[in-house]
Amino acid sequence: MSFKYLNYEVWMATGSQHLYGPAVLQQVQANSQEIAATLTVASAMPLTIVYKKTLTTEQEIFQLIQEANCADRCVGLLVWMHTFSPAKMWIKGLRILQKPLLHFHTQFNSHIPWADINMDYMNLNQSAHGGREFGFICSRMGIKRKVVVGHWKDEQVQLKIGRWCRVACAWQDSQEMKVARFGDNMREVAVTEGNKVSAQIQFGYSVNGFGMGDLVENVEAVSDTEVTDLIQVYESAYILAESLLSNGKNRGALHEAARIEIALRHFLTNRRCTAFTDTFENLHGLSQLPGLAVQRLMADGYGFGAEGDWKTAALVRTMKVMADGLPGGNSFMEDYTYHFDDQGGSVLGAHMLEICPSIAAHQPSCEIHPLGIGGKADPVRLVFTGRTGPALNASLIDLGDRFKLLLNPVDAIQPPAQMPNLPVARVMWRPRPTLEIAAEEWIKNGGAHHTCYSENLSVEMMQDFADMAGVECVVIGRKEDARY
Ligand code: MN
């Protein structure tokens, strides 16, 4: 994946008016072009900021917003009120706005030129009140938008804009996302259920089920050459367990895992699906639960949710798009087991198989072990421990009348001891502020056991995403946020 490859753009427009004469408007245009060009080449920027126009009339504003709504490559609008831009002329356009909006509250000059400042300077550098006029009309109309304040050359400001652009890309991706479900939900489980029609209306993505037999047909069609080639990839990327080596007793299972991976890739590519679910209760025709295949597809940017969890599958995909190209990873995750200690408590996160190697602290080993449930052949999987450092867990739930996004920042730690008998990928973290507070709040809020675990996305990015989607967002993590 790469945003630049996808040609995504954010369009920049500058608000002004004719009151100050053509010379000021020419200056506004030149300054705006310079800002757009500087932002585009900033290292924090994942895409091109395309300067479109200085907007001075209601009709110009309406036309640009109409164009932005219909342009697939435009993932959002960045507006700057260079000079005072009377905001009644923005109403008609804002009423039809369908793309994410960022109000960049900046000023071309960073410092006041004390000796030279006169009224011409004041008229040219009046975002301070122009931005307030625009902010008012957005609030008056209930327009969701991000407000970024600061000088355009400031790297921290550029970083904020860059992160918002990443979220806007993920939002655009969500509008086109197709989630494939192999089998339905794990029987009797509640939190992984939800209203797929509501989700499509809210988030844009569509969720559709496929019979296992369709995937099995793809498995049977995989050629031996494809399998041999993929096995070579496994051999170079992972430390293979002895029984999976070329003369090992489980080599056949590795071939089978490769066959499943190739079939899954074909299946998803042919249907333009970028996220998927499966469930161990519905694997008719597959010899083993896909483990290695799911892990490797996630590492390539696919969303995944186990046990039919399509909401988490879509969320994992969305977060992977946001994080494209950043160091660190994002993975499907489950709060698995607790370690109550005197340092605030910690959680061992894992799943039966499906943790993404993008969060691995070391080269994964490729192993085969019995699964214990599902009644299938032993599945091949990657085993590793996650990196240490700050991270966050995100969970999206369907409460019947609304969706809610829960966030909990955590600190991943080195597990205090080896776990030689644990045959799955795992990561250990301390929830903020403590396990007791975080888990209590999480449970009271109805947060799921499945999450997307992220090493490289901030709470602010996830909040921006919730704003774009128009869903409630709850952050758990600071003592002062807890209801005590
Ligand atoms: Mn699970």
* Total number of helices: 15
The gross shape turns out to be: elongated
Low-pLDDT runs of 5+ residues are none
Instruction: Assign a percent range to the helix content.
Output: 25-40%
Strand order of the largest sheet: 11-12-17-16-15-18
**Proportion of β residues?**
15-25%
Structural class: alpha/beta
Largest sheet: 6 strands, antiparallel, barrel
What are the distinct ligands in this entry? manganese (II) ion
Overall pLDDT level = 95
Distance between the termini: 44 Å
| Rg estimate, integer Å | 25 Å
Summed up:
The chain has 484 residues and is an alpha/beta fold. It contains 15 helices and 19 strands. The strands form four sheets. The chain has a six-stranded antiparallel barrel with strand order 11-12-17-16-15-18. Strands 2-1-3-4-5 form a five-stranded parallel β-sheet, with helices on both faces.
Features:
elongated; alpha/beta; five-stranded parallel sheet; 37% helix; six-stranded antiparallel beta barrel
Give your account of this protein's structure.
The protein has 484 residues and is of the alpha/beta class. It has 15 helices and 19 strands. The chain is elongated, with a radius of gyration of 25 Å. The site of manganese (II) ion has 5 residues, from loops.
List the helices and strands and how they pair.
Elements lengths: L2 H4 L2 E7 L6 H20 L6 E8 L2 H13 L3 E8 L9 H6 L4 E5 L13 H6 L2 H15 L4 E4 L5 H22 L1 E5 L13 H8 L2 E5 L1 H10 L2 H14 L1 E2 L10 H20 L4 E3 L14 H8 L3 E3 L4 H13 L7 E10 L6 E5 L14 E4 L11 E4 L5 E10 L4 E11 L12 E6 L3 H10 L5 E5 L4 H11 L2 E4 L9
Parallel strand pairs: 1-2, 1-3, 3-4, 4-5, 6-7, 6-9, 8-13, 9-10, 16-19
Antiparallel strand pairs: 11-12, 11-18, 12-17, 13-14, 15-16, 15-18, 16-17
Helix pairs in contact: 7-13, 7-15, 9-11, 10-11, 11-12
Manganese (II) ion binds next to loops.
